[in-house]
Request: fold
Amino acid sequence: MAVDIPALRGALVEIPGTLADDPPREPVWISQADPTLIFPARNPTILDSLPDNRPTRVSAAQDVRESERIAADVRSSGIEAIAWYRSFRVRSLPWGIFIRADGLVRSFEQMFDGLAAPRSIKLELALNAVLSHELAHFYVDTAIAQFELLSLRALWLPRKLGFAHAGSYDVYEEVIANASMLRAVRDLHGPLRISGRERLLREWTRRQPSGYSIGYRYTAAHRFDHALNRHGASYLAPRTRSAAARKHILLAPLIRAPMSAAAAVVPLYIVTSSSSSRFGDIGLFPALRIVAETPGFKKQLRKSPEQMQRAYAELRTRLMARSPTSGDRLKRWPPLGAETWSLRLNRGDRLHVRHLAGMDFEAVAIGSHAELGHD
Reply:
C-alpha cells in the first residue's frame, strides 16, 4: 500500500524538529544545479535501442575526461554522485529522487562492464539499480517518520544534521541502500535477467567508500534483517532499544512494502547540464506538457499547412498523457535560449517549446526544418 506523503508530512508538523526548511546535506551537483535544468519525469522511459556510437557535442578526449571524473566521484561519494534522494521533510524545495543525467550516461557502462547485453539493457539495469538504492532511503525516511508519530519526538532530522555538521554521512544506511539495490537487481525478471549482472554490480560497489562498499555482504535475507534491526536501533535512545522495537521500525516498510508502490509515490527528476543537450543520449525523458502558446506561435500555426496543424495537435494531446519518446527527437535549442527545446513533429517539420516551470512548456515556433534553422 502506497504511503500518503501529504498526510504523513501534515502529521509531522505537530512534532517539533521533524521538518526542515533546507536539506541537511546535498551533493554539489544538485545544490548548485540551475533550477531551469531540473525536469520532472512521469516515469523513466528507456530507449528501445541505444546506438553503439552515442551522439555527443564534445570531443572524444573531453568525453573520456568527464567519464573519469564521474568515476572518481562515485569512488569518493558512492551512488550519490549519480542520484540523490531529497526527503519529503524539506519544506522549501521539491522532494523526490534526482537522477544526474551526465552521471548516469557515463556510469552505466562501468557498472556493467563485460555484460553480454546491448547498451540499452545496461542502461536500464543501471537505472533500476540507482532507483532501488534511492528508494531504500525513502523507505527508511517513511519508516522513521511513522515511529516519530508513535513516540512524538524527532529522530530522523537530528541524526542527519549530526552527520552533516560532522562532514560525514550515515554509513550504515548506505550499507542498507546498496544491499537493497543488489537484492533488487538480483530479483529482476524478463529481458533484464542476464547472467552476471549482480556480480558485476557487486564489484562496482566494492570500489565505493565506507558503507557502500560492504553492502554486498548483507544481501542474504538474515543478514539484511540484521542490518535493518541495527540501523533502526541506532535512531533510538538506549533505554528503548528493545527487541520488539527494533523488529518493527524498519523491517516492515523495507522488506514487505512493494517497490512498485514506492516508485509510484516518489517524484523523479532529471538533472541536466549545459552539456547534456540530448535526452536520447541517456534514455530518460522529462514529462512535458504544452500549456501555453505565444502570440507569434499562434500566428505561425494559423498559416501552417493543415497537415502540420494536425501533427501539432496530436503531439500536444499525446504529451499530456505521457513523456516524449526517442522518436520525438527531443533536444535543446540554444539559438532561442537555454530553456528552449526542439521536438520532431513529422519527417520534415519541427516544434520549438520553452520551459516555464515543472513540466509546463509553451509553444514558441513551428515550421519546417529549414524554416526553424535545423540542418
About this structure: Confidence is low (pLDDT under 50) at residues 44-59, 238-261, 275-281. The CA atoms of residues 43 and 237 lie 39 Å apart.
